[in-house]
Write a structure and sequence with these properties.
two-stranded parallel sheet; mainly alpha; two-stranded antiparallel ribbon; Ribosomal_mS45; structural constituent of ribosome; coiled coil; 5% strand; 37S ribosomal protein S35, mitochondrial
Length: 270
């Protein structure tokens, strides 16, 4: 486990050690050379992920870091495997021939029983925040140590730095500890413990939010439906009447440019 700890000093921008990532059968449709498929996890890899999470009790972030699979994909694989195994226990038929045919057409990532594991995909990509899609000119002193936190505050006062918006903050701290000369085995143990605590805290918060939501919801069962009624303050509609939590917000509201008599061309130059 954690064979990749031995190569932390290498360039992080190096291409993943996956023979299917840029090569292999990445053109599943011979008559469509413009479509190039990214690798997918084969059945053995999905079973391995499910077994490590459900049977061994490992944290999602630990499995994600060890196998090189995005933590959201790890969670999705576990959920789908749970559905699959429940259907098998209920005697439902699965579309195995269709799944096998599709997998034979696509490049796959598989994990050997021993040896180094390939990287399926980048696991620490950060979503491009809307605040960063603007040009910002911030004068600063040349002697000042300008950090990622300062850069985030330059875009917006509430924006978090990149390491705090990452899906693997515990992994970042572990890498920093190793690069600073810390013991790798001890750093790995701290990472596993921190990832487990983070996952338990997320579960606790989700359960607390569900209990809070159930406490303020009145349920009325009928023959066909379950009506869920909640109290709502009619004054919480915002200054324009289109607040995010207002009644009817999710169904949208017509734009002013579709109203009759509205001027749709600029009348002045600011």
């Amino acid at each position: 486990m954690f064979e990749w700890l031995k190569t932390l000093e290498r360039d992080l921008t190096k291409k993943p050690n996956n023979p299917h990532y840029l090569g292999g059968n990445d053109q599943p449709f011979p008559q469509n050379p413009l479509f190039r498929s990214q690798p997918v996890l084969d059945e053995d890899a999905r079973e391995l992920i499910w077994r490590r999470v459900k049977k061994n009790g490992e944290a999602l972030k630990v499995v994600s870091a060890d196998l090189g699979v995005d933590v959201r994909r790890v969670a999705a694989v576990v959920r789908l495997k749970e559905v699959e195994k429940r259907w098998i226990s209920e005697g439902k038929r699965l579309a195995k021939p269709y799944s096998k045919a599709i997998l034979n057409m696509l490049p796959k990532t598989s994990y050997p029983a021993s040896g180094p594991k390939p990287t399926h995909e980048p696991i620490n990509d950060i979503h491009v925040h809307g605040y960063t899609m603007q040009q910002v000119f911030l004068p600063t002193s040349e002697s000042r140590h300008f950090t990622r936190r300062d850069a985030a505050k330059a875009f917006h006062r509430t924006m978090l730095p990149a390491e705090e918006r990452s899906q693997h903050p515990e992994l970042i701290e572990m890498v920093k500890d190793v690069l600073a000369g810390g013991n790798r085995a001890r750093s790995a143990e701290k990472f596993i413990k921190a990832a487990k605590q983070s996952e338990q805290e997320l579960v606790r918060q989700a359960e607390e939010n569900a209990r809070r939501e159930a406490a303020r919801t009145m349920k009325i069962n009928s023959d066909r439906f379950e009506f869920r009624i909640q109290s709502f303050d009619s004054e919480r509609v915002g200054t324009t009447g289109r607040a995010r939590h207002a009644v009817g917000w999710r169904y949208g509201a017509p734009l002013d440019d579709r109203k009759r008599g509205k001027v749709k061309i600029p009348t002045q130059v600011p």
